[in-house]
Amino acid sequence: MVDFAPGMRVIIRDEEWMIKKAEKNTMGVYALHCTGVSSLVKDRNAIFMADIEEVIPVDPAKMKLVVDESPKYRDTLLYLESQWRQRTPTDNNIHVGNKAAMDTMNYQLEPAQVALERPRQRILIADAVGLGKTLEAGILMSELIIRGKGKRILVVTGKSMMTQFQKEMWNRFTIPLVRLDSNKIRQIRAKLPSNYNPFFYYDKTIISVDTLKNDVAYRKHLESATWDIIVIDEAQSVATRGERNSQRSKLADLLANRSDTMIMLSATPHDGKARSFASLMNMLDPTAVANPDDYTAEDIKGLFVRRFKKDVKNQMSGVVLERHLAEESCQATAEEEAVYDIFTALKLDMDIESKRGKGQLFKTALEKALFSSPAACMKNVEARLKKLRKKYADDEIKDIRSLENLYGALEKVTAKEFSRYQKLLELLGSKEYNWNRRADDDRIVIFTERIDTMEYLYKNLSSDLKLKAGEIEKISGAMSDDEQQRIVENFGRAKAKVRILVASDVASEGLNLHYMSHRMIHFDLPWSLMVFQQRNGRIDRYGQTQQPDIRYLVTETENEKIKGDMRLLEILIEKHEQAEKNIGDPATLLGKFAEEEEEAVVAGAIEDGQSADDFGKMMEDNIAAFNPLEALFAAAAAPQVEKPKVSEEETLYSDTEYLFQAMKYFNQNEEHSVQKLESVKGLEIGLSEDMRHRLSATLPKEVVDVFKDRSYLRLVSDREYCMNEVKRCQKEKTEQIYPEAQYLWPLHPIFDWVNDKASLIFSRDEAPLGVLSDLPEGNTIFLMNGSFPNQKSTSLVDEWFGLRYEKGKFVEAMSLKEALSYGKLRSSKELPNTIDRDNHYSQEKEACQALLPDAVEQAKEYLAGFYEKYQEKTQPQIDEELNKLAELELRHKDYKRIKFQHSERKLKEEMRRLEDLFTYFNQWVEETMTIENSPYIRVIAVLTAKGGTQRG
């Protein structure tokens, strides 16, 4: 009986399969878990019982050699190229990520390098706002895809971010994510049976965290689906806060177990509490942190990277422009001063009663709303009056009378008496500000904390600026995913009429608002430094080409109490800018790392009547104070690679030439057409029905729509050109959202189609034989591939080499590059195939065929050296990993014994869970990092001199 092993190629039902897992039952019968290799079953998964099916191992020694009679050895070269391009990089170097359609900088490659050097690629990319975390995720995803670890991808992000993330992945990396927004979900549900898992419908998808969180059915589907890569954007929202897990953190816990690879993104990765950050680390590696309240930098090293603009600024010269900041002051009107006086004198019984407890006083909440706008403050007063009137029948209750008095004063602050609003109008029309409302690329983002203020500005600006329909937009979290995405998309495109976007802070996280805008106005001042950072990062970010112009609107008043409180907010502005330049993380100033906690500090300072000097000193003291948690993060997130290691890939053809030659070959049957572009390096390819069907099933509808009515596909390998085309689509007044020219590089889905087609030039049991006139007499070279897969069928050693024979005797093994150079195939344009078609070269063919079994044995011997090298390098790593797991298991169990010392039942449950967890990870290490000394060998092609091997 054959001993089946992972990685072995077999023929079952006349199709070629690769064994992923071979399970042997008590009767000695194998259940073979396979994935399809040949074209009809490619990438399909199936399980076969070896006692029922006829399973024929693929024997490379029995390959049939076919003399290549094509011009310039075209068939051999295309077939070789199609195979060579499917090789698996087995080192930790960057192979393609540095070639994406972006101005790549070293710091953006570092997260991928750090992740690739770990057994599991699970990492939190926690760079500061505006440094390009999405692009860093794309670089790592690209590296995993070429390693065969990125067939199925799930991206989870916010509603407003879906379109943006999808476009970045396609335009820069040609990673086709299908957007599962509410419309798409309805379409899929209409197509599929009710019990069908929609996550099996597309391999690469992006979905909103709110959809997954709120849709019970979708959460259930997650439990029965797995992915190669899962990305969670704005990951701080899934961290555990306190003892109870939110729906989002439960969702992230579920997803953490559905993929070997997880990439988390967050500019604000922790709230200052060790426990909540530990929850993120344990999602990435459940064995990392035993005690979430007490862990070291070594425990979490390699699980995250965190850099600030000051850390990488020297790499960004000429890319990031210094922001222009200005405070725009205005004097409060008499009506506003009246409100301030009434507010200052306001004494609420409800606050006197609640002062003994914890939390913010209602008066403080009112002041926060008042500092946003009279409209927002009125809304708060209305809501509280409604509650009080419901509770008390007597309208003479003091709080009711006081709030009614305040409400009456607020009503008198009309738009004309609202000084900050008038200052906004003045600024927009001033020569100094020089806003050109007719220019497509001079748009303004106005941020405000309150939705009521947003609505107020939207309504009044529309009227006072005489804006036409569509020239002003608003965005808040209350909107649907479709609406949020439409607004963000339009704001970044010249075609759209929008000139002003009024946004609540839902738009302050993650969104790219810098394509057509370099102006931002803080209509109100947030009470959180983190919000300042997030807002400013919408326009002051990687890719901004104009100097960011940021204005803060500030009201001056004669009321001493209000003036003092407003001064505290102005100090936040000053200290925030200083912190970004000097220490990197402004959150250090208030000593808090969550928006609500920062707001509580500011509220406390206001309630205690803290002076501006004392408030500023408190922030300076926080910087100077030793923060052990920050020190921990700084040590763990320190750069772990001196410089990213980049490997230059080399094949027979460039991407453009390979595609051109392949399409010319396929065009023999006049099904396809291809021509080179004149103005830029690229191709225009005629779309056959087969190609159109393949791409339409893979690419997002938005990309397919660009070429659905065309008979061709335009592909360009010049990345600068492609980047400019993306900008052109944004800036030109066109309906086109995605560029017509797609970036041609190794990850483009067209190569999957081409490689599959070119692989069929020769049958699966055939290899080309090139009879070369320039090869030295008596020489034959076997071009071979040998790989050692792990138990998950991932190649950990993948070698391409040549075996040279002279006069029928083995002489040497050489690298594939040396073998091709020796055979002069690299100069194939000058190497005409002078084969005599009447000769058929039967003698050469028979001689090479006779050498084939020996070549396979020589390949095994040659590959044994690579097996030994792998063992020497990896066995210490495996031992280290297993020892580390054993030590961590003891640490986890010790912690649980202390925590549950008073509950024997709970302790037993936790011990069982830990044993299962560490058994799984020990097994994972064995399955993932070990290989057997039984390589899978393929004969790719054979080159021989005219006249045969001339055996001696």
Automatic annotation (TrEMBL):
Taxonomic path: Bacteria, Bacillati, Bacillota, Negativicutes, Selenomonadales
Keyword flag ATP-binding: yes
Helicase C-terminal domain span: 420-587
Residue ranges occupied by any Helicase ATP-binding domain in the UniProt entry: 114-287
Gene Ontology molecular function, alphabetical: ATP binding; helicase activity; hydrolase activity
Species for this entry: Selenomonas ruminantium
Protein name: SNF2 family N-terminal domain-containing protein
Cross-referenced SUPFAM superfamilies: P-loop containing nucleoside triphosphate hydrolases
Keyword annotations: ATP-binding, Helicase, Hydrolase, Nucleotide-binding
CDD domains in the cross-refs: DEXDc_RapA, SF2_C_SNF
